[in-house]
Write a structure and sequence with these properties.
Layout lengths: L9 H25 L7 H11 L9
């Protein structure tokens, strides 16, 4: 029987999974921080409005 990844010992399997997870996390983090961030503050303005009006009753129509 030829050796393969599936019949490796449990410790080796766990190491490979951890290294793969760390590499994927690093790629996602680098790609997120490397892209150009938008300059508009629309989301911040909307969040600020929601925080300021939280708990106030809705206006009756």
């Amino acid at each position: 029987m030829s050796s393969s990844f599936h019949n490796a010992d449990r410790r080796t399997h766990r190491k490979i999974l951890v290294v793969g997870f760390l590499l994927c996390t690093a790629v996602v983090a680098v790609s997120f921080f490397a892209r150009e961030q938008p300059d508009n503050g629309y989301v911040l303005v909307k969040a600020d409005k929601l925080i300021r009006t939280a708990g106030t009753p809705l206006p009756k129509k």
